[in-house]
Amino acid sequence: MTHNSAMDYAGNIGRTEGPHTWEEFLDLDDDDRRELIDGEFVEIEGMPGIEHEYTVAELIYYLKAWVKSRREGPVLASGYKVRITNKRGVMPDLQFFMKDNPNRQQSRGLSIGRPDLAVEVISPGSSNYDRVKKFNWYADIGVPEYWIVHPIKHTFQQFVLKDGHYVAMASLADDEVFRSETFPGLEIPLAELWLPPDQEDEAGTK
To answer: What is the pTM of this model?
Structure first.
């Protein structure tokens, strides 16, 4: 892959040419945020902003509450690695495993299988990557459901895998409420996912 082709979808800043492998990706330091893209280590988004981290934390809150009420499997935040191929590996901002998922007990990273839900919260520089590359890659490994959440535009999209391709099931925004048909009883008021205006002011954001 050339430098320009990586920039087309990864957008960004830290990049180490390979070829590198899944095992090398697993061996990166815990604070190394690069992902494995076609044999290269690429930093997609740099340091996540406050809007991104706020939204991730709120999503975890609602998912964990639902999980505990149902005694389902773990909800994991970014840092847990998922293998796409031997030359591709990613770290979803959030992922969830049902209790009957046979591949959820892998300590270093998910080398075999897939999560039941992958969530990406868009940051500056990651939009095309999340909407195109990861969209296709998660479908390739059979992730049943994928959410794309945009904390600046206040949008929430739900995609469900059907016949090997993602189909849009919900496209919501602002203060609407997401009610999941695939995870019965799960409700997320979207207004709770967005950084409150007073905190945006304090953070110097618009």
So the answer is: 0.87
